[in-house]
Write a structure and sequence with these properties.
The protein is α+β, with helices and mostly antiparallel strands. The chain has two helices and two strands, in the order E-H-E-H. The protein has a two-stranded parallel ribbon with strand order 1-2. Helix 1 links the parallel strand 1 and strand 2. The radius of gyration is 13 Å and the shape is globular.
């Protein structure tokens, strides 16, 4: 998506990995990348992600859910 010129909001638990990803995408593709650290197993974090999606500050045109699933 960055290669196609889309600005992104990236979400994951590891903020340092997200920050590195954001820098690389911004550098190589000239897009804006917002980092949102969240653990989708935590209700409060999921609520923050939903609030960001619904926020009127920047309209989000597409959501790509690539969250993993596992059992233990």
């Amino acid at each position: 998506l960055a290669r196609e010129g889309w600005d992104l909001v990236v979400v994951a638990r590891n903020v340092s990995a997200l920050d590195e990803l954001a820098r690389e995408l911004e550098k190589h593709h000239g897009v804006t990348v917002d980092v949102l650290a969240a653990d989708l197993m935590v209700a409060e974090d999921r609520a923050r992600v939903v609030n960001r999606i619904l926020s009127e500050q920047d309209v989000i045109g597409m959501v790509v859910n690539n969250a993993g699933f596992g059992t233990s």
